[in-house]
Amino acid sequence: MSKKTISLLLSLVFIFSIALTGCGNKEESEAVKVGMATDSGTIDDKSFNEGTWKGIVRYSEENEGAIEVRYLQPEGEQHTNYINAINDLIDTGHKIIVTPGYKFETAVNEAAANNEDIYFILIDGTTHSEDSFDFVKHDNTVCVLFNEHEAGFLAGVTAALSTKTNKLGFIGGMEVPAVQKFGWGYQAGVHYANKTYGTNAEIIDYIYQGTFNDAAAGQTLAAGMYDKGADIIFHAAGGTGLGVFSEAKQRAEKGEEVYVIGVDIDQYETGKISTGESVTLTSAVKGIDLAAYNYIDAALNGTFPGGEIVTLGLKENAVGIPEENPNLSEDVINKLEEVKQEVIDGNLVIPSTQEELDEFLNN
Amino acid sequence: MKKISKYFTNEDYQKKIIPFLSVLLGFIMGALIMLFSGYNPLEAYSALLKGAGFYGSIKRFGDTLLNMTTLIFTGLSVAFAFRTGLFNIGAAGQMLMGGFIAVYIGIIFDLPRIIHLPFAVISAGLAGALWASIPGILKAKFKVHEVVTTIMMNWIAYWSVYYFVPNYIPGNFDTESAVIKESASLRTDWLSSLFKGSYVNLGLFLSIIAVIIIWWILEKTTFGYELKAVGFNPNSAEYAGMKVNRNIVFSMMISGTLAGLAGAVYYLGYTNNIKIGELPTQGFDGIAVALLGLNNPIGIVFSSFLFGFMNAGKLFMSASTEVPKELIEIIIAVIIFFAAANLMIKGFLSKINKVIYRKEGEKNV
Lengths: 363, 365
Hints:
The structure holds two protein chains of two kinds. By secondary structure, chain A is an alpha/beta fold. Chain A folds into two domains: 32-146 and 291-298, Response regulator (Rossmann fold, 3-Layer(aba) Sandwich), CATH 3.40.50.2300; 148-285 and 329-362, 3-Layer(aba) Sandwich (Rossmann fold). Helix content of chain A is 44%, strand content 18%. Chain A contains eleven helices and twelve strands. Chain A has helices at 3-22, 48-62, 79-91, 105-114, 148-162, 177-197, 215-227, 240-253, 288-300, 330-345, 354-362, and strands spanning 32-37, 67-72, 96-100, 119-123, 141-146, 167-172, 202-208, 232-236, 259-264, 280-286, 309-312, 319-320. In chain A, α8 (240-253) links the parallel β8 (232-236) and β9 (259-264). The longest helix of chain A has 21 residues, at 177-197. Chain A is globular. The two termini of chain B are 17 Å apart. Chain B has one domain (40-321): ABC transporter involved in vitamin B12 uptake, BtuC (Orthogonal Bundle), CATH 1.10.3470. Chain B has helices spanning 2-9, 11-36, 41-51, 58-83, 91-108, 113-142, 146-168, 189-194, 203-220, 222-232, 234-239, 244-270, 282-292, 297-320, 326-340, 342-364. Chain B is globular, with a radius of gyration of 22 Å. Chain B is mainly α. The interface between A and B is large, with 45 and 42 residues.
């Protein structure tokens, strides 16, 4: 026999011997299994999926032994892919399913109806059937929405107050409600700052790239905007936005003064360059992790608000900008506090649709 | 003994067992990788098989067949082009265009099922053919290489659909179309209830019919012979009086038809609407399916079954064990690697044969 055959046979024997000994020591634990299925993009998208996952992991770390966590990345973005991923989690004993993203709406709607003993936490969407947009109530599902426009508004005010060239940019991912709301709020914020604080900023480019995972395209778009003289770009584009960071970092390394406003989670670390400074001016934060954390806790402690649509905003401290903003001046931070208070007190209503925005811009 | 030994020496027989050996080696490699990274391969593989419905759940087996349906079409599409000397990387784009037309017809028209469904499916095939004819014509007339043009056509399809869907057949969101009418859906109640709620659909039968037709064209008709001859050697085919340019366009169109039909079975069966911003991965998987299936219609049934069940089972595997699902991708890659490096396995086979042969010789002495 040749050496190859012998080695092949040996490895086979090896496999089976180890495999057999490996069986039979499965440990049964009391922990509740919590599963998450990711939206388009990967778990480390530095944004949406990562935020949700962080909340789940934080819960499992702070409450040791209470939950066992796992995430799956569906095979594609079709309803069938999502429903299969959810079923895979349910069939393997997961009792709480967390799904971030409006794309899960119809899949969760179907799964929630078929699995009444499973808790579903749908972030950024409401359950409805495939052929109608009407909300379908499930007692085992909580739908969490965010006032993204409020975070976008603060981003807009920040950008207008901080720009040196008076030129700003916006790069969105796909034209979906959450991203649009960030954008509308941003436009309104810039307008508000110009009116209230006498700034003279203008959004020169307002582009939806079309995907959430094309970093190369994000970088190209960002390069174009910076070349045109914009010094701050707000991105609401998940993985595509990572390209915006790459471009800004390259320019910052060469000494250019350009900034990015991050999205969903505090992206200060993402923007760090070799000097230890960051190109992240601030981030329009959405408390996705908080939502995941809170509703897992609620499900385990019997206070799960099943059947409800919960909307979280500035008032609930679930959207806004991070606590720490090393790149913002004292003056800007103070002004942001004023604006924030205005919104919380209800004196200032941020537009959340195109019509409301048009009206806002005309006043 | 002779019977077995011919698998080691005879070229034709060797060809047939190489894919099976590749699969086996792929799984062994996968098991080794799992062992070295501290996972239990037996547990993982049984989860994989369970997830694909080999035991436990008939619904999951339905999902395996569902995955397989689309892959048969894209595999056939790529293989048909291969056999006729063309490398169609554009199956994804042709599939997307076919799917778009099918969904468009499924939404806009209101017809009885017996007309609506065939209308949507056939139009999808035609759309795929039309889309593929462009690289075909460019190749025939101007010698533009089809690899370049089909890749470009993929992106043209991608962005066209991106524009068309929200403007002509908008759904609940800007990123997806409305849902097709029942009458245009390939899903049927009896199949779904047979498979306990899986979306396995009439497309499965269509794919089997397509396999038979393509096999018949390639092996039993003069037309197929001509196409293959052009693939083997365009110059001698021309010398023999065949119309090379016409045949190039025809085989691109047939390949495109198959990809377009893949779009029909995917968007009218696997899903029931079309989402933008996505180039269907099945189009690219088709290349691997065709390669492993030796570009043979019957071989493609086997290889798409393999890919289908691995796709159906891998998420379940990563949900029920600690093994990351990327490992399945590694196994698939290793299988394709071995299938592509078949010379290596051939050498290996003849070595085994020598060993066997020597022993027999000794006995006879």
